[in-house]
Design brief:
single chain, 256 residues, alpha/beta, Rossmann fold, 7-stranded parallel beta sheet, 7 strands, globular
């Protein structure tokens, strides 16, 4: 009897920035589908709380790992920890990211570098770290978290838009390079979601309304759980013939 294609039983997922927001929502979705999930972020207590929530809600095993994705040594330690615990990594979700909003001319080089180190260099290093394991097994699912801001621009977001545009093209290039190893690489491009990353926008009622009005499907921000189904699909065998895709979850923003 063939297994259900969305079933993630026997799979291990590693999610950076997985302790809250979209990362936490995807972690819960993957655990519900049967995966063992390693939740990584800079703040270990928050990761531990999320891991315990996954265990209690889904009955699946979960692991908390402290990792700053701007630090190569911490990335390698994170990957080694998951491999020592479970012996495999089938799914990597590069979700850790930051967004600092200010006029272009006021950005310092330090702030620019901070955004680039987190949003593009971090995923690059995480992919490098899991590469030997996935290539040796000739199997893997990598999910990048891009943004609709990787396709269109908004004021006061120049470094963020640049970093997410880079994520989208890195996704395409890596998908081609690793296709011979049966490793798929795809990106999810979220629109505005009700997460901590958008807290600044939500505090400005006029700006919040401006963003929400650009979403045809309900004129609203997305709820974090609305990204989980796509993450499960891209992590599962149901998507085995899809690679190099940038898939928006934006309520129709990019369709305009």
């Amino acid at each position: 009897m063939k297994s259900y294609p969305f079933d993630l039983q026997q799979k291990v997922a590693l999610i950076t920035g997985g302790s809250r927001g979209l990362g936490k929502a995807m972690a819960l979705a993957l655990a519900t589908a049967g995966a063992r999930v390693a939740v990584a972020s800079r703040h270990l207590p928050t990761c531990e709380a999320t891991a315990e929530e996954l265990r209690s809600q889904t009955g699946r095993d979960a692991l908390a790992v402290a990792c700053d994705v701007t630090k190569p040594d911490q990335i390698h330690r994170m990957v080694d920890t998951v491999l020592e615990q479970w012996g495999q990594i089938d799914i990597l979700i590069n979700n850790a990211g930051i967004n600092i909003r200010q006029p272009m001319e006021t950005f310092s080089l330090e702030t620019w570098q901070q955004i680039m180190d987190t949003n593009i260099t971090g995923p690059f290093l995480c992919c490098q770290a899991v590469a030997p394991h996935m290539k040796a097994r000739r199997s893997g699912r990598i999910i990048m978290i891009g943004s609709i801001m990787g396709e269109v621009g908004l004021p006061h977001r120049v470094p963020y838009c640049a970093s997410k545009g880079a994520i989208h093209l890195m996704t395409k290039a890596l998908a081609i390079e690793w296709a011979p190893y049966n490793i798929t690489v795809n990106a999810i491009a979220p629109g505005p979601f009700m997460t901590d990353l958008n807290a600044q926008a939500r505090q400005d009622s006029e700006y919040f309304r401006f963003l929400a009005d650009r979403v045809p499907l309900g004129r609203r921000f997305g709820d974090p759980e609305e990204i989980g189904g796509l993450a499960v699909f891209l992590a599962s065998d149901a998507s085995r013939f899809i690679t190099g895709a940038i898939i928006p979850v934006d309520g129709g923003w990019l369709a305009q």
